[in-house]
Amino acid sequence: MELFRGYPALATGPFVIESEGTPLRVPYQYYRCEKEFRQLTDWLRSKGVNFHRPLQTLRKEFGSQVCLHHGIHAASSALRHGALRVTTDHYVEAKVHATSGLGCLLGLAKAENITLMAEGAKKEARSTQTAPL
């Protein structure tokens, strides 16, 4: 992040990341930073990012990592989305499925998708339960 924070301070023109290419006003698609995009794309592919759009894959991974460490709202803000749903639907990959872990306490221990607790953990869970009022 420090690297990116330094770019605006070093900019000598209207662009945050400067390029040797000058902006053109042409009727066809033109990228001022084509050389830099190509270098970054090649580098991402050399690191195993072999998807159709590696820069978009990098952006999605960034959003997923921010979400994992700081939550969905922080990820949405970091990705500059106006709606949280855009972040959840398209950008954040669920890497961990959250469960309560209480299945064995509900008598569901024989279900295929339930992981059994160790005996010591079961006894500890029972001893910390409070009696109903």
Description:
With 133 residues, this protein is mainly alpha-helical. It folds into three domains: 14-50, no CATH class; 53-95, no CATH class; 99-133, no CATH class. Helices cover 47% and strands 0% of the residues. It is elongated, with a radius of gyration of 24 Å.
Sequence of secondary-structure elements: HHHHHH
Mean pLDDT: 77
Q: Treating each run of at least 4 consecutive H or I residues as one helix, how many helices?
A: 6
Measured on Cα atoms, how large is the radius of gyration? 24 Å
Helical fraction: 40-55%
The shape, in one word, is: elongated
Which stretches are poorly predicted, pLDDT < 50 over at least 5 residues?
none
N/C terminus separation: 53 Å
Structural class: mainly alpha
**Domains, number:** 3
How many beta-strand elements? 0
What's the story with the biggest beta sheet? none
Give the strand content: under 5%
